[in-house]
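During the no-cost extension, the postdoctoral fellow (Dr. R.K.) reprocessed legacy sequence entries with the updated structure-token encoder. One reprocessed record is reproduced below for audit purposes.
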Amino acid sequence: AETLQRPEATSHRNRALKSFDRAAQTMHRLGESRRGGVAEEWRIWLLLTDPSTRQTGQELVACKMTEGSSAVEFVELAYGFGIEFDSAPLERHLRIRELSGGLSPQELNAQLSLYRRTRSPEELARFLESQQETLRTVLPPKVHSFLLIEALIAARQLDRASLILTEFVFAEAKTSRSQSRIVSSQTTAKWI
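Re-encoded structure tokens follow.
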């Protein structure tokens, strides 16, 4: 992405960086660590999108990736900006959380990110199928189906991919017909 380099853009960026920094500190001080973390993520994203601060942003993300719980929040930035990291702390954190009661939606997204980038297409497809119900709490069904079909094709399981695609198209057509009937009946009711 191209960064705006005009002086007013730099001024706005610097103000935003300071605002996100203050917001993160305030939220952490108030015990709102999740909200503080979101402000911190946005601040680091801004650093990563500007060539003059990209190195600082990369160093901050690399540091966050060394500890499992913070890696959950920063894994997408790490992958999105091509920042190398050791996945072991994140994998360890996710495994412990899984065994001690289950993953939060954010942790589930982090696990999916890891599978998409570190596992074979076969392993990703098995993960997507075995965790379908859980994943659909954080992914729309269309996205889940797309990821599964994509993994199956990459794994050269074309018959299975074709079956999933056919089931998806059938389900979409059925949903579309149901929605058409609802709209039609609502329109008819208005005229009666």
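The radius of gyration is 22 Å. The mean pLDDT is 87. The remaining legacy entries will be reprocessed before the final report is submitted.
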